[in-house]
Amino acid sequence: MKEVKGFAYHKLPMRYVALCKEGKWSKGKLTCRASVRINESAGVLQYAQTCFEGLKAYRTKDGHIVCFRPQLNEQRLASSCERMMIPTLPEGMFLEAVRKTVLANQKYIPAADSGGSLYLRPYVFGMNAVIGVKPATEYQFRLFATPVGSYFHGGISPLRIRISDYDRAAPHGTGHIKAGLNYAMSLYAISDAHAKGYDENLYLDAATRTYIEETGGANILFVTKDGTLVSPKSDTILPSITRRSLLYVAEHILGIPVEERKIALAEIGDFAECGLCGTAAVISPVGTIDDHGKEYHFNMQNFEDTVIAKLYHTLLDIQHGEIQAPDGWLMMIK
Ligand code: PLP
Ligand code: COI
């Protein structure tokens, strides 16, 4: 596949499926069926008992197909499942689903130099009827693939985001896992943000509303005026694999100082650069954060001159096999 624009679902020929009954997973297999048949009172429909992951497969310039750190998605799905009372997958199933689905749909992986990739969406959900509030006893794991371009419309033109009046995650809640419910409750806020001309919502910590957390679909990064990469530390944000990788790349490959710490809303005016990071977002520069009419501007127009751009290019080069990846970061699929 040559080029794909935007981030959308395209139905590809094959996906992976496995079933679980009373805690025992069946052997998984590929299927051409994109539809799911479940009971009207399925746990996922009534009480949102579901969690998911997002990762990408890439073509490298020398003709291989690779996946970026899928073991971390596997681990994060396991912690999401535990918190959602969903039986964890048997050892090896997640990576088998990744390999088989990518190989079965390989002709839809965008070309190496197109900026696109094959987005993989693994997910698990409660299937059987529950009406009292309790976990289901039957589950389905599926993994489908869709070719994608950039998540935000403008590609790498700077985003305009706003401080949200809604909260994303309660202290001791589910902000640190990838549960569907975290996204369901963000739909009102994101629709309102889009209607008002913003690309995303930036959430504050729900307890004090004084610290920066993350956006609806990505973690946030800042760069200080003297070039230190700073990212929020919080128990209520998703532990982004992209952020963890970027902090490593900054410190160990690019020699950029890094800090993971609480970031107060009151200090964002002091930062020189800002960006969002995630599998879908990659690294998207943020030009403006609007806090109820008070605007903070970051000089991201000349993207190529920024520290964030250095991180962006290095990460992409690692993902596409153009510079040596740290040990174990790329899983070779073909
Ligand atoms: N935060 C949220 C809320 C997300 O949905 C995502 C996307 O997965 C991320 C952060 C980024 O995480 P990752 O880099 O692991 O994709
Ligand atoms: C991802 O980056 O994989 C996500 O799940 C974010 C989602 C909002 C598309």
Describe this entry's structure for a reader.
By secondary structure, the protein is an alpha+beta fold. It folds into two domains: 15-148, 2-Layer Sandwich (D-amino Acid Aminotransferase, Chain A, domain 1), CATH 3.30.470.10; 159-319, D-amino Acid Aminotransferase, Chain A, domain 2. Helix content is 22%, strand content 29%. The strands form two sheets. Strands 1, 2, 3, 4, 5, 6, 7, 8 and 18 form a nine-stranded antiparallel β-sheet that branches. A hairpin with a 7-residue loop joins strand 10 and strand 11. Helix 6 packs across helix 7. The radius of gyration is 20 Å and the shape is globular.
Précis, in short:
22% of the residues lie in helices and 29% in strands. It is of the alpha+beta class and 334 residues long.
The tally of structural domains comes to 2
Give the SSE string.
EEEHEEEHHEEEHHEEEEHEEEEHE
Question: Termini, distance in Å?
Answer: 16 Å
Main pleated sheet: 9 strands, antiparallel
Structural class given helices, strands, pairing?
A: alpha+beta
Low-confidence runs: none
**Strand fraction band?**
25-35%
The appropriate CATH architecture of the largest domain is Alpha-Beta Barrel
Radius of gyration in whole Å, from Cα? 20 Å
Question: Quaternary arrangement of the chains shown?
Answer: single chain
Mean pLDDT: 96
Bound molecules: pyridoxal-5'-phosphate, 2-OXO-4-methylpentanoic acid
Top CATH class of the largest domain: Alpha Beta
Tally of strands: 18
Write out the CATH superfamily name of the largest domain: D-amino Acid Aminotransferase, subunit A, domain 2
Helical residue percent band = 10-25%
Question: What would the CATH topology of the largest domain be?
Answer: D-amino Acid Aminotransferase, Chain A, domain 2
Rough shape? Answer: globular
Number of helices: 7
